[in-house]
């Protein structure tokens, strides 16, 4: 598209065109020509910073930041330049927008991180939805653990839940660490953990990653189901078998002086056999305990009174 068509149809200035092309020299000339174009918006509501960030032109973003271009302008879809850089996976532009070259205060940067587009997503959620690992890591570092826990989509799902829902297994490890553990995020409607969600969808790879990071197989959702029961209810039989193998009750006797069942878990049958062998020094149970006792003599017959003649069944 020629510049004249861009100017007529999109409402671009010379600076918009230079930023979209990634031409730093032309950006400098356009700014010198008219500094008011720094934050001028197109018909889509986008500034030159939007176009540079969306296309991954780090040098142009750096130049515009040096000229103190605004970073918190939202286009007609509610997206900031940070949204566009995150969704496109341009980790370098994300770093520039949140780094030292952006001379905005900490409060303004926090505001930028918290801004949501019209779909209800902030920049981190935009990166998670798009599956962009580099951008996710940059934003997690900028937000910190507390900030990540406040990040939710319009349905109240956290980044870890959304990553599993979108089948972005590669995002699960960094988001587990950011969330403070694999079981911290719950679906507000169902109470499901990320493991419940992976089980319902039959995502074996996500289940494996979550289990390696210590996800609980005994946590219940609002319906009182474990992740394995959720998998079975959804017809995900492979996921159900994998979760049942990870959840095997111990066959060893309970500790001395403790009543009821021993709810400690073992991971493999071999581990259960080892535990049973180690407990062989425990006192043996009384002879015959646990076996069916067959009496050697029949009990005496019970004599009932004879019914009067002509009486019914109950007399």
From TrEMBL:
Domain of life: Eukaryota
Transmembrane region(s): none
Alphabetic keyword roster: ANK repeat, Repeat
Pfam family, one: Ank_4
Family annotation (SMART domains): ANK (SM00248)
InterPro entries: Ankyrin_rpt, Ankyrin_rpt-contain_sf
UniProt key word Repeat: yes
Positions of ANK repeats: 44-76, 77-98, 190-222
PANTHER family: ANKYRIN REPEAT AND PROTEIN KINASE DOMAIN-CONTAINING PROTEIN, ANKYRIN REPEAT-CONTAINING PROTEIN-RELATED
Identification of the protein by name: Uncharacterized protein
